Amino acid sequence: MQGTEGSPEVDSSPSLYTLRSFIKDYRWHIFICLLSSIINVGIDISLAVLVQQGINQAISGDHFDTWKIGFIALMIVVGFIVKYLVKAFTVSVSTRITRHIQTHIFDHLGNVKISFFAQHSTGDTVSRLTSNISSIQNFLQNDLYNLLYLPLLCVAATIYMLSINWLLFVSCIAIILVSVLLIGIISRPVSKYASELQAHIGRSNSISQDAYMGLHVIKAFGLKPVFSGKYRSAMEDALSSSIALEKRKTWMNPFIVLLKLGPFIVCILLGGYMVIHETIDLGRLTAFLQLLNYLVNPASVLPMVITNLRHVIGVSKHLFELLRQPTERADGNAFGKGSDHLIEFQQVSFTYDGSKQAVDNLSFKVRENTTTALVGASGSGKSTLFQLICGFYEPDQGCCKFYGRDIREWNLKALREQIAIVSQDIFLFPVTIAENLCYGRSSATSEEMIEAAKAANAHEFIMRLPEGYDTVVGERGASLSGGQRQRLAIARAILKDAPVLLLDEATAALDMESEALVQEALKELMKDKTVLIIAHRLSTVRDADQILVLDQGTLLESGTYEELLKREGPFTHLFHAQYSA
Ligand SMILES: Nc1ncnc2c1ncn2[C@@H]1O[C@H](COP(=O)(O)OP(=O)(O)OP(=O)(O)O)[C@@H](O)[C@H]1O
């Protein structure tokens, strides 16, 4: 599928690297966590030294300084306080980091090429932004500190234990390494299962979203079993990935027990033997046991942290895929009037998916302040012309010009400021009517907004609503009739007051009274504008300055209503077909 060219750099880095680039912005916070970890490690090691001295002095009958007892108590209290502060701090940092990721992705999605949204389900995208993000937040909140603190503690404990007795250390570390290795092997598929689980959750979310949005169709066509089946199948897939994930975690349990108990048993047996043969004293053995605790604890927590890290790598991959979607270009200029023809297509060809031509070698010109009607059978390429004019897609061949300049030279934001669209499928946001109208021009005053609503024949029905302009319109404007929704869309376009108006005529579905009101509103909207209108009923194109008759993306003929009827060509056939029907 062809989208607009020239997006900024596409990030192809691995997911963990992308996550790291977000964390990097909080390096001072991370530095504080690291500093606190060093303080904690210092406290832990000095406690071991003091215990060793205390026991040896007690055995030899020496007096143990009381200040040392006070110091041990102080160390324990300081350790608690630092741990508490670090926990509070990591919670705050992890929340900031995840909010940062969320807003960054949300902003990025706003710039992503429109073709992405034609291919991907909204439910899946929303699910990535919610459940994947919360997995990352959990990891940062619970495991980030461990990733900093535990390796430091291990290194410090290792050095001290080696200085006490290397043989005892090697015996214990062998058991630790074997257990950790086995746990690592077993946990390897965890990131794959986590990624699959997220994909299934995304699928089930998108099915439920589709089902709620199309609830009327589902009820009317009795489609409940179809959607229930689809949802159940997605949930079953999610369940089996989740079971596989948990199974893996359970398989790790025996090795975690081995890790937690094995080194102590070896240490007590071998250490006891050494004490009897006086190759180590009891104080050093006790200190060794305490240090072993510093090694075993991290070693038993670290596999879980690593498993969680793998889980996060899996979900990050899924999430950061969104950041790798190419964005629309942000370069280009805003141009003033540079030609008599506001819009010009020169031998334009375009295909969405590389197979069927949606537009084929099409050329036409639109003068300023004229109305051009596009007619043709369904699928003849009328809406595609709108997409090309708005710069949502670029032609494969030929050139689309706006004010005499190739649209590829235009800045897309500036281009779209020149255009107001009223489409057939009106989208209203589930906010108040006032807010919906002001999306046309956020700087509009209340008076201007009401004036636009009056011009669009919408003011009266709005005032009849319980809260007038402050009425919330419901999901996609569901609480309003089709005609009311259209008049609001027209009011929004009037408020935008753009020189070019792209109109998808949709009055055919309305009753006569509603249609008359909408037609009147349209007349007001079209005043002094360059209008391209997709006309579904030929009676509405009588006054157009030119009519373009399209078929399968090609221009069959063009002219005024009278000229085309006189010519007795494709337009006349369409005309007869419609009126005989
Ligand atoms: N997002 C898309 N991806 C792939 N093909 C598309 C897409 N949108 C439209 N098409 C195809 O492009 C061709 C032209 O479609 P287009 O919507 O422009 O026709 P139309 O004349 O506006 O039809 P209608 O009057 O029914 O709205 C059709 O064959 C259609 O299937």
Automatic annotation (TrEMBL):
It comes from the Bacteria. It holds the Pfam family ABC_tran. Residues 343-577 form the ABC transporter domain. SMART domains: AAA. Residues 31-311 form the ABC transmembrane type-1 domain. GO terms for molecular function: ABC-type oligopeptide transporter activity; ATP binding; ATP hydrolysis activity. One of its GO terms (cellular component) is plasma membrane. It is found in: Cell membrane. The keyword S-adenosyl-L-methionine does not apply. It is a multi-pass membrane protein. InterPro entries: AAA+_ATPase, ABC1_TM_dom, ABC1_TM_sf, ABC_transporter-like_ATP-bd, ABC_transporter-like_CS, P-loop_NTPase, Type_1_exporter. Keywords: ATP-binding, Membrane, Nucleotide-binding, Transmembrane, Transmembrane helix, Transport. The chain crosses the membrane at residues 30-55, 67-86, 144-162, 168-186, 255-276. This is ABC transporter ATP-binding protein. It comes from Paenibacillus spiritus.
